[in-house]
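Recap from last week: sequence in, structure out.
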Amino acid sequence: MAKAFGAPFTLVIRGGSAPTGFDPIAHGAGVPFISTELAGGAGLDRVAVEIGWSGVRRVLREQGVVDWPEPGPVDETCFLDAMDGGAMVMAPITGIFEPCAGLGQSISKGDPAGRLWSLEEIERPPIELFFDTAGIVVA
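Predicted structure tokens:
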């Protein structure tokens, strides 16, 4: 289904441990499950809407649910392994995060992830955060 959906990136995670939502219900029933997160926290844009709409049409067509025309060719999706969750950069304090890398950007271990500006101590210089692993920025 993920290949048929055809998003530029497919993040593979363990969704079955979520306390609520579709993930645990689908996993418990042994039903294949994919979901999308097209907004990325900043609202939808035209490209995200097109990825979503075309992807849903491709999956429904592949699964034999509808007989719509093929929505068009798609590049192969890049699968990103996030099964262990170890590639996250966590904020050690409450603050405003200023990213140094953009979504979809390839990064190396040790590259700057961003600066974290404290909300409680406004005079404090920002904390520099770095990537612990190489990969692609997804959030």
